[in-house]
# Entry
Amino acid sequence: RKEVEQDPGPFNVPEGATVAFNCTYSNSASQSFFWYRQDCRKEPKLLMSVYSSGNEDGRFTAQLNRASQYISLLIRDSKLSDSATYLCVVHPGQAGTALIFGKGTTLSVSS
Amino acid sequence: EAGVTQSPTHLIKTRGQQATLRCSPISGHTSVYWYQQALGLGLQFLLWYDEGEERNRGNFPPRFSGRQFPNYSSELNVNALELEDSALYLCASSWLRTDWITDTQYFGPGTRLTVL
# Structure
């Protein structure tokens, strides 16, 4: 099993749609979780951290399910500008280890 | 506050040559990470430096090396370039928590290396 797995997509949705991405991780000791956004040929940018209680930032909601070892990202009222690749990122929990990036899920929002 | 900066933006080399890529972290960040992202692939972790020391290394051959300077800036060196080294090389920086757990990473714009 890969350390961090994501459905690569692409997810093609119309403007205004609600779309959800899931990500699974293999290491139950993982401590920190993030969603990054990467536009084509650009650097990844932090979208939001994911907390155990779940967190929301405007149209974006992130959830963490430790028992099932998955993280989700919900985007409501999709905008054209949401088109990007969304990277699920996990810290495996051991001190001195680097973050692990999923390969990303591509979202395309059309008018 | 300035973000992570990288230079050069683009670099074109031929097989067998050496490439040097540079990164300046966000002020106050002590950790610098290097990643390789080949076209259509995910980020592959290369190297992590903190306080001038190499803390971790990804699954790459020794011809990928680097260093971190006292001002926390960093260099990535790739020797004996191969065609498959063509990729976007991303640098990120972060705080390092006292428990040695990596904090949120912030990325620079990357250096696009093309090997001909």
Q: What stands out?
A: The radius of gyration of chain B is 13 Å.
